[in-house]
Amino acid sequence: MPPLFTIGYEKSRPDAVLHELEQAKVDLLVDTRAVAASRRPGFSKRALSAALDDAGIAYVHLQKLGTPAEGRSAARSGDLATLWRVYDEHIATADAQAALDELIALIKSGKRVALLCYCRDPNSCHRSRIVVNVKKRLRIKVENLIPPLF
């Protein structure tokens, strides 16, 4: 099974993120943001999906794996304890578990999958909690892609 990749686009340009995905030979980008919109040009759902499509990378948005509003607010203020509490409660919900099942199926398909969110540091991002949950069900190597700063 190929590794599972993660990537955050904070402080990076779209072309730098795309380059990292291409270098890792990613087949499918899974957007794990609750809200697939961004003030950063090129990272809203439609623009990102189109750029990925041009590069031959598929896109899927698993919104239910995203962080609820209270957790996003905590993350912005640097309150990781609250972020983790909120996200751990959220990932246990039926909707999030269904999205996690979908993610597991995509990974098991043999595609090279990358999880996307905003946060540059995977250790302070909910992507790390998604990875923990994936690893409970699959033996898989995880590689965090870090695109260059702009």
Notes on the structure:
- The protein has one domain: Cobalt-precorrin-4 Transmethylase, domain 1 (3-Layer(aba) Sandwich), CATH 3.40.1010.
- Helix 3 (69-76) runs antiparallel to helix 4 (80-91).
- The N and C termini lie far apart (33 Å).
- Strand 2 (28-31), helix 2 (45-54) and strand 3 form a beta-alpha-beta unit.
- The protein is 43% helix and 15% strand.
- The mean pLDDT is 96.
- It has helices spanning 14-23, 45-54, 69-76, 80-91, 94-108, 127-135, and strands spanning 4-8, 28-31, 58-61, 113-117, 142-145.
- It is built from 6 helices and 5 strands.
- By secondary structure, the protein is an alpha/beta fold.
User: What structural category characterises the helix and strand content?
Assistant: alpha/beta
Strands in their spatial order, largest beta sheet: 3-2-4-1-5
Uncertain regions: pLDDT < 50 for 5+ in a row? none
CATH class: Alpha Beta
Q: What does the overall shape look like?
A: globular
Order of helices and strands: EHEHEHHHEHE
**CA-atom Rg in angstroms:** 14 Å
Any key phrases for this structure?
alpha/beta; Cobalt-precorrin-4 Transmethylase, domain 1; 43% helix
Describe the secondary-structure layout.
Layout: E1 4-8, H1 14-23, E2 28-31, H2 45-54, E3 58-61, H3 69-76, H4 80-91, H5 94-108, E4 113-117, H6 127-135, E5 142-145
Parallel strand pairs: 1-4, 1-5, 2-3, 2-4
How do you describe this structure in short?
With 150 residues, this protein is an alpha/beta fold.
